[in-house]
Design goal:
Strand order of the largest sheet: 1-6-5-4-2-3
Structural class: alpha/beta
Distance between the termini: 40 Å
CATH superfamily of the domain at 68-224: Cobalamin biosynthesis CobH/CbiC, precorrin-8X methylmutase
Protein name: Precorrin-8X methylmutase
GO molecular function, one term: precorrin-8X methylmutase activity
Helix content: 55-70%
Largest sheet: 6 strands, mixed
Family: Belongs to the CobH/CbiC family.
Number of strands: 6
Order of helices and strands: HHHHHEHEHHEHHEHEHEH
Keywords: Cobalamin biosynthesis, Isomerase
Pathway: Cofactor biosynthesis; adenosylcobalamin biosynthesis
């Protein structure tokens, strides 16, 4: 039984009309649905260069909240494309974010993806200093890769430490993607990043996540390509 046959049979049995179940069409249909729901007026007013990132985030989360909360600061799109084309490394605060980044797309530009949160030296130092591993992991990244992209999707303390390092003129990231999710220090950490002069893509408010950070990276690869 072919795909069309079994879905047609399922439609007859359930009374549900499916748009498509063909693998090659599902993503395309999803983006069409997103754009339909956003509406022509919104699409026309949203900055064209930023739209692919927003659409990818909504596709990943099914949450149209990001249409209002996603902020692109200090020439973020231009800076992101430059950084990716230079093959700068991408530092994440979680293995989940690192896993969600398209390695083939990153490899096309020579961008390596690193996450240090599980490293033994990070664990030991965090325990010794009574700090979060997220904060210590970005310190390690700053020592190893002074020029890089940070994709922070989980730990607000990683953003807080980045803010301190920037304020102390110890680092100047090429780009910060700030999308931690949660309650404690999440909103505040994002707002502090937006107060810097560093190019940043930030999901204001409590929502976000490692999947959002990865989705933004993947959208940027497409834009840079």
């Amino acid at each position: 039984m072919g795909e069309t046959d079994w879905t047609k049979k399922l439609e007859e049995e359930t009374g549900i009309r499916f748009r498509t179940t063909r693998p090659e069409e599902i993503e395309r249909e999803s983006f069409l649905m997103i754009q339909e729901e956003l509406g022509e007026s919104f699409l026309a007013s949203y900055p064209e260069t930023q739209l692919p990132v927003l659409l990818r985030v909504i596709h990943t989360t099914a949450d149209f909240y990001y249409g209002e909360s996603l902020v692109f600061a200090n020439g973020a799109m231009e800076a992101a494309c430059r950084a990716i084309r230079r093959g700068l490394p991408i530092i994440t605060d979680t293995t989940m974010a690192a896993s969600g980044i398209n390695k083939a797309a990153a490899g096309k530009f020579g961008c390596q993806v690193h996450c240090f949160i599980g490293d033994e030296d990070v664990k030991e130092e965090a325990k010794h200093r009574s700090m979060t591993r997220a904060a210590v992991s970005v310190e390690k990244a700053a020592r190893l890769y002074p020029d890089c992209i940070y994709a922070v999707g989980n730990g607000p303390t990683a953003l807080l430490r980045l803010y301190e390092l920037i304020r102390e003129h110890k680092i100047r990231p090429a780009l910060i993607i700030g999308t931690p999710v949660g309650f404690v220090n999440v909103v505040e950490a994002k707002e502090l990043i937006l107060q810097t002069e560093v190019p940043a893509i930030v999901a204001r408010g409590r929502k976000g996540g490692s999947n959002v950070a990865a989705a933004i990276c993947n959208a940027l690869f497409r834009t840079a390509g």
